[in-house]
Amino acid sequence: xxxxNVIIIGAGLGGLACGIRLAVEGCxxxxxxxxxxxxxxxxxxxxxxxxxxxGAEYISxxxxxxxxxxYAGKRRIDSFKFxxxxxxxxxxxxxxxxxxxxxxxxxTVKLNPMLSGADLQGFNSFTEESAAIFDDIFxxxxxxxxxxxxxxxxxxxxxxxxxxxxxxxxxxxEKFQTPELQQLFGFWPLIGGGNPKSATHLFRAFSxxxxxxxxxxxxxxxxxxxQAIVRLFQxxxxxxxxxxxxxxxxxxxxxxxGVRLKDGRIQQGDLVISDADAAATYRYxxxxxxxxxxxxxxxxxxxxxxxxxxxxxxTRCILQERAPLAPLNILFPEDYDRFLNELxxxxxxxxxxxxxxxxxxxxxxxxxPFGCEALSVIVPVPNLESINPWDHISYSYRNHVxxxxxxxxxxxxxxxxxxxxxxxxxIIKNRLGSHAGSILSFQPELQKNGEIRMANRCRDIRHLYxxxxxxxxxxxxxxxxxxxxxxxxxxxxxxxxx
Length: 498
Ligand SMILES: Cc1cc2nc3c(=O)[nH]c(=O)nc-3n(C[C@H](O)[C@H](O)[C@H](O)COP(=O)(O)OP(=O)(O)OC[C@H]3O[C@@H](n4cnc5c(N)ncnc54)[C@H](O)[C@@H]3O)c2cc1C
Prior knowledge:
By secondary structure, the chain is an alpha/beta fold. Helix content is 37%, strand content 19%. Among the domains are: 106 residues, no CATH class; 129 residues, no CATH class. It has a seven-stranded mixed sheet with strand order 8-7-16-17-18-15-19. The protein has a five-stranded parallel sheet with strand order 10-2-1-14-20, with helices on one face. Helix 1 packs parallel to helix 9, helix 1 packs parallel to helix 17 and helix 6 runs antiparallel to helix 7. The chain is globular, with a radius of gyration of 22 Å. The structure holds flavin-adenine dinucleotide. Flavin-adenine dinucleotide (FAD) binds next to helix 1, strand 15 and helix 17.
């Protein structure tokens, strides 16, 4: 490959993974990161002996990190290690009925008394049918770049076979009879920020990914893993400039020429990859007043994705649980339909939301001092386009989340709380630089042309490429790693031709 001058906006996982691959190919790669640290959504905070991962905690398809290291001629295991997690997660319903999903379906069947009769048949058929489509979705759809000419044609044929119009909720309702299992087996799109009531049933591929490769956490915290990846990038020859925000992507004659930094300096490059949120990239970093770009219009018409209220707590004792909790728990609310309606349609703050509860000290005991407990709660909430009084309501919402959480414990949490920190959508927006504080970029909705996110190669601005949450195939760690490989593949194709 030609030794190109590559500029990458953002040192999130997507930017770093693209940077490593291109540096290994002999390119001169500079990453400009607005924060004074790398990782974006991947990071950890350490407070008085407690460790909390600020964003992502669980890694599925961990072999994708091995592939990244192999690309650089190294072994991931020499740099950081993973710990397997099983069960993958446990769903807890309002009456404390529980359902744990294991990587081995036989374990799931054996250990969940809820699964019997027609539901057991439904589970077997769900598992079999999801396995049958998984390779197509993971390797053929997610693992290849979106391409104007070939991708659409190929996916249109392929998608028609899959009947993607059926929603995940509809699919689960056909397979299961128990309402709780219908909720659980329909909820997969929510992992990527999508609405189970409108997003395609193909999102159930998540369940299969968990079963195929399990899930893992990096030893020593997410920040430890990020530092290892930054080292890999630097050892491959790349440079990171921290505290350096990009304010504009410079375009002349429909072709990228470099970027303007917030301090006014211009940096020239043969190409620019944006790992910043795709919605923010198209809305704020491209001057579309002078020239109208289709891609900018397309990005503006996509639905902005959800945000989150993230609450980390450390207690002075081990909390006694009302019903046994797993390391990762999805706590379904009494009225799940109402919650989805409030989150995605009315876009209001729900009083009875679904909670994702991570028991950090059950995941890794070192995450809390001996005899203490570390927990994180993630509440999916509408983004700042619809709710923006967070500077007034954050503390009362924190109180409300604490009340909801208390239902799951016999020990009084408030009197035993010794550390806490919460991130509301405003803090998240400032940290990630995402449009409206969305955490996973656009709301994933399958378009007629087969796209769920934006293409890896910008369709009408030459030498502009996208990586990360908002680029095909989309959010979550495996999505972003697959996407980075896709983006580098199209860059190689483009510059080999020129
Ligand atoms: C609370 C939470 C929990 C999650 N849990 C999981 C999980 O358990 N498992 C999982 O697989 N995924 C999870 N995810 C999703 C996963 O973390 C993301 O999909 C992934 O980390 C996104 O990486 P990225 O590179 O696309 O973007 P980001 O991590 O958002 O990185 C973008 C980077 O770009 C920088 N930037 C933005 N604008 C500019 C600019 N103008 N100039 C310079 N720099 C800029 C930002 O500072 C940031 O560092 C979670 C996400 C959140 C928020």
